[in-house]
Amino acid sequence: MTHDELTPQALQKRYNPEGSLLRRHQLRMLDILIELDRICNKHHITYWLSSGTLLGAIRHQGFIPWDDDLDVELPYSEYKKLMKILPAELPSWLALQNHEQDSNYLYCYAKLRDKNSLLDEGLPYDCRCKEKGIYIDIFPMEKHPIWLHRLSELTFGHLYKILRLSPNDNHAFRSALRLYKLNTKFIYPCLRLFTTCFYWGSNRTFGMGIPLRSKRNFKHVYPLKKAIFEGHEFPVPHDSDAMLRGIYGDYMKLPDLNKLQLHVVSLQM
User: What is the CA radius of gyration of the chain?
Assistant: First the structure.
């Protein structure tokens, strides 16, 4: 592609022009983030923009033009606090989605969902969930060695396999639910106890059972600073450059625009 085709204006015109469905999707996610930021500030809960959302903030000062999701991270202790606070603080158009709020939701991280839209990502895991609107992901970060995180993925992986192969089978779902409870009520607390007693490393990675492994060095995270994202200020790691290079390498270089993969299959707003 020519240089003129890679300018911010050209990329927006190609992928998310004002009024397009993707741009409306992005702005709804922004509205959700603004509400999350308000609640976290009110209750002194620390979080930061992460992954592609952080990349968008640093490289584009907003969404990556073709991006259709939004991610934030926070320490596991802060995550547990936030899960208790959110149900009473959310406006009527938003819903917290975790297993406590939606018993058919069997992930180890939470989502904030817009109640006034319907999003289909083509995933069999979501077919039983109560809320299916536009969302942002809230990921807890835990201190444990990578081998232990891989172990937690293995103990959780069969659950995903069951839901993927038999999403509408009630017996299969009950089996998946039993696995979820075994992991979250027994196996993961035991692994966390092991970590507390025997692990002194500084790296964090995604919470147990989450199939993502990229490490976060909290020396790059704290103290948090602010960055502009879609005209608003949100918290980001103080050394976002080191964070992004650890995840993406040369993150300022655009990917092959002919090989982009979006999450959304269909969206009604």
Answer: 19
Q: What DSSP designation does 223 have? A: S
List the helix and strand counts (H, then E) for the chain. Answer: 9, 11
Q: Where do we find the tokens 């990556």?
A: 64
Sign of CA dihedral 6, 7, 9, 12: positive
Residue 95's DSSP bridge partners are 113
Over residues 106-147, the pLDDT tens digits come to 999 999 999 999 998 887 777 788 899 999 999 999 999 999
Cα separation, 263 vs 111, whole angstroms: 15
Q: 240 and 62 in contact (C-beta within 8 Å)?
A: no
Instruction: Please list, in sequence order, all residues whose beta carbon lies within 8 angstroms of the beta carbon of residue 236, skipping any fewer than 6 positions away.
Output: 48, 49, 54, 57, 58, 224, 225, 226, 227
pTM above 0.85, yes or no: yes
Token duo for residue 141: 């970060």
